[in-house]
Predict the 3D structure of the following.
Amino acid sequence: MSPVLASISNVSRTAETLRKADYRSYLPAVEQLERQGFAIIKVDSAILAEVEAVQDLAQAFFAEPGAVKHAYASPSCVEGYREIGPEYSLVPERPDLTESFSFWYRNRHRPEMEAWHSSCPLHTALHNTADTLCTVVDALFTAMAETWSPGAPRLGFQEASYIQINYYEPAQHSRELLQDPHEDGHLITLVWATEPGLEIKVDGQFIPVELAKNEMLIMPSSILSLMSGNRVPPLYHQVRNSRRDVPRYSLMFFVNPEITQKLEPWIRNDSNAGIDIIEQANSAPNKFGLPTLVDGAAGQGKTYG
Ligand SMILES: [Fe+2]
């Protein structure tokens, strides 16, 4: 694989002012997505510092006793901690062999999450990192729109998107795959990972992804395929068990379209004719054991027994 591409600079939280100015640096990533089905972007030192701070806080959090971790879990809206069990990639009998912790924008004004801000630094750090990555995604989507449908309205994503850190203990498991093959059912997923394990399907074969510390992988999934008239197919991926006796952390920013917008594809053709893209995005989490976007936003996801 030939790594890439867009060098991200001048990222700040004033997304609206920088979005138009910065999108050109993401045009190579769009080209890579079309040509090879994935892209790798370099992140600047400020982003890397935020990501590494999240990892340090995650290391401390996941080492806490179960009771402490479950105090920061709200399964009905998929916020905070999740143990191994509820989430899977293919079938419920084979759960993803990872603990995880999530921050969703949609939940940030719930009183219990506001309370976490003072007592759970991991939650706050994830929120901050998501804010930064929103500027990256906003510029990337602008680059896509300029490539495929110049003048298209801005794609709203923040309220429906979430960031998650996964914690794996590979040596504790006998399975070959810690996550079975799947595509995420989102627009894109930005991935940063410290240890080997992630494999992506390219030309029919799973190949390992080796990311440098200052690189993130852009994984397209089915909602982006619908938006792009299948110019970019969904990227299937899995996590192989390295058997290593050191933890594996991976940080993912899962990007969904906001479900309140009327969404037209950037490219309309037979591949997306008659398909309600918002409804596809809404129901996609069901296939992994998670509530729809509507149910999760309403706090009506199932509570795990
Ligand atoms: Fe995934």
Summary: Residues 182, 184, 237 surround fe (ii) ion (CB under 6 Å). The mean pLDDT is 90. The first strand starts at residue 39 and ends at 42. The longest helix spans residues 121-148.
